[in-house]
Automatic annotation (TrEMBL):
Gene: mtnK
Record's protein name: S-methyl-5-thioribose kinase
EC numbers, comma separated: 2.7.1.100
Record note on quaternary structure: Homodimer.
Claim: ATP-binding is one of the keywords in the record: yes
Alphabetized InterPro entries for the sequence: Aminoglycoside_PTrfase (IPR002575), Kinase-like_dom_sf (IPR011009), Methylthioribose_kinase (IPR009212)
NCBIfam families linked to this entry: MTRK
Amino acid sequence: MTKKDFTQEYFRFNEQDAIDYAIDVLDFFDDSTSLACVEIGDGNLNYIFKVYDQVSGKSVIIKQAGPIARISADIKLSPDRNRIESEILKMQYELTGGGVPEVYNYDSNMNCTAMEDLSDHVILRTGLLEYQIYPALAKQLAKFMVETLLPTSDVVMPHKEKKEAVKNFINPELCEISEDLVFTEPYYDCERNDMLAPTRDYVQQSIWNDAELKLAVAKLKFNFMTNTESLIHGDLHSGSIFAKSDSTKVIDPEFAFYGPAGYDVGNVLAHFILSSLNAKYTEEAPKEFSEWIDVTLGETLDSFIELYEQEWDDLVTDEMAKVKGFKEVYLANLLRDTASFAGTEIIRRIVGLAHVVDITSLPEEQRLLAEKEALEIGKKLIKESQNFTSGQDYRALFN
């Protein structure tokens, strides 16, 4: 079969194309005779290939962006998201000392990025559904968030440099997906919403008819759209995190842009809550895991707060940000955002287009109970966000 020309017009790879690309463009392997490839992506947007040498085990990941989302042909996407992702991975690699995969190559023609293979880690959602315990997870995730959110904010960065970065990482297509799926569609009878019938009845009564809730979410939507606080990951959930017992790596920052820092922190906490609900409503979860995920939910936020306050004192450069009391005001706003955005993330995973297997894998009777509790937790986090200032406040949601 004739090899395709990777210098010509964009085309979507198959597995053989990925092998040829690794040989001809990346020049990644010394010997091409024993190469194999498997498509490993099962996400909503992209195509991900692992090319590996069956003898030496050497491997590379090739992630290619298409012009439409895998989840829905109605969602059109700019391939520039691949450029944004590759640049942010390089930046985060430096900021965190390797907390993300190393990028080897970015190709604007084929809209693909070649990067480090993390096959020695497990996708966190998979591990949590198998009730695996990761002792270092809370502190490592907290460290990642502090090291990526605080240094990219106005209190640390030179202001002109920060404004240039805001311009460079404008990400309208991916932001629009969040604006629709997180902050708009779950709050009215949108045809793309996807629910079991009893859940829909509950949503009609408790979400769509709750004027106070909808007003709060309207404020959150425009906070998300206009608050350029930090360079956020934008989709930091358990499917975007790789973990093993002593290591945590964050992947897939293609939704990244300058937005409210609490959105990332809230997303992490929301998915720990969803994992806790999975454990609560299944008999398969060991008691040890249920206790660990509960502790991890609280420890992640407490570790984030502690390290954020420490790093603030070391990193802040703006003179007015050093004014006595400002750190406390700034962090209080971030924590209110964290709770609110955790709530919107939980609600959208129950009501909207993109569900999580933590909930959908439950037997229907238990799923309905878990969904109702999730929606109530989401509402509480949004409407009472000012009350969630510590890890214990989140752990108390289940008491």
